[in-house]
Amino acid sequence: MQALALHFESEFLLSLRILLTGASGLLGGELAGRLLERGHGVTALVHRTTEVRRNNGSALHCSEWSGAPPGGGALLVQRGSVAEPDFGLGRDSAGAVAKGHDLLIHCAAATGFSLDPAIYRAVNMEGTRNAAALARAGGMPLLHVSTAYVCGARDGPVREGAIGERFANGYEASKAQAERILRDAGVPAAIARPSIVLGEWASGAIRSFDGTYAAFRLIAEGRVRTVPAATHAALDFVPIDHVASGLVDMAEAMDAAAGKVFHLSSRTPILVAEFAAGIAAFPHLHAPRLVDAERFDPSTLPAMERRLHARVTGFYDSYFRRAPLFDDANLRALSGRQCPPTGRAYVERLIGWCMEAGFLPAPARLKAACGQP
């Protein structure tokens, strides 16, 4: 009966024409692929590259935007910039794009933790304002991708819609301000808030190793050996496939989703101590030494580690000091979707993929089996 219902749904699903910003990014590329699989037409707004790739690395076939909206299952690409009014397309072209689509998914963002404040203002804040203006011009709703960490520096349950006052970095602060801009824009909108997006749940696979992965490699390779952490701290890791699937759920039910905030989170955050134990399960890697965050003094670190802490890992300190528990009731009510468990076994799959992809060193016995020196 369930299989019959799913078949009926796929047969009669209304094909949407979707304008997607940030499509050349990690999450945007995977989302584009899933939307196409569902039979929707997608126009990808791209900035520097016209290549759109799934998380598995496969490139999606695409054609250049020529003024006609995308047909079902087709991917078009249009160069532009969210940081510019009308996305830099010019008023006439922007008007045609706006009126040729049913939904705008705003996935583009500057995600680094230590960028120039002007970049956050231009891309994350003004980019959201420009997206809202385009959606309004086309009479279409907007699905905005934010971050769960707009909750700020807090522990315990975090309700959907809550916004903090104290933030760990410019990225969090700019995304919180972007949400405020959107709420004042007068556009029917839903807000998706992923937590810490990592590799696919079943395999740990990830297409690119940015942000969190860079800090993790410094720890696992032993170049950063000391991590300040609160004893209760927990990390909310969420698989990219859960996030992308949740966004598809929202896109296909925007009448019900509009006006709501959705946490795309794990529901089972992993304690920092358990995260360290997951690294320790691989004897050739270096589990971090966890120290009391309140007593941590970076000046006591060895010179090289002190520099790495200041340039990279220090920007992630706050995530080892707090333990938010993100409520995901809205997604469960919308589609019934729940994130699978993301405990130590998931962490070990992430590490295994990093070794398989060459991002982390493999153990000597694995290298020998592969014929490597």
Show unreliable segments. 1-12, 365-371
Terminal CA distance: 55 Å
CATH architecture of the domain at 8-200 and 236-269 and 324-341: 3-Layer(aba) Sandwich
Strand order in space, largest sheet? 3-4-2-1-5-6-8-13
Percent range for β-strand residues: 15-25%
What is the number of E strands?
A: 16
CATH superfamily of the domain at 8-200 and 236-269 and 324-341: NAD(P)-binding Rossmann-like Domain
How does this structure look, described?
- The chain is of the alpha/beta class.
- The chain has a domain of 245 residues: Rossmann fold (3-Layer(aba) Sandwich).
- 37% of the residues lie in helices and 16% in strands.
- The strands form five sheets. It has an eight-stranded parallel beta sheet, sandwiched between helices. A two-stranded parallel ribbon has the order 7-16. It has a two-stranded parallel ribbon with strand order 9-12.
- α4 links the parallel β5 and β6.
- α2 packs across α7 and α9 packs across α12.
Condensed summary:
By secondary structure, the protein is α/β, with parallel strands linked by helices.
SSE layout:
Layout: H1 2-12, E1 17-21, H2 26-37, E2 41-46, E3 63-64, E4 75-79, H3 91-99, E5 103-106, H4 117-138, E6 142-145, E7 156-158, H5 170-183, E8 189-194, E9 196-198, H6 212-220, E10 226-229, E11 234-235, E12 237-239, H7 240-251, H8 254-257, E13 261-264, E14 270-271, H9 272-280, E15 289-292, H10 303-311, E16 324-326, H11 329-335, H12 344-356, H13 364-369
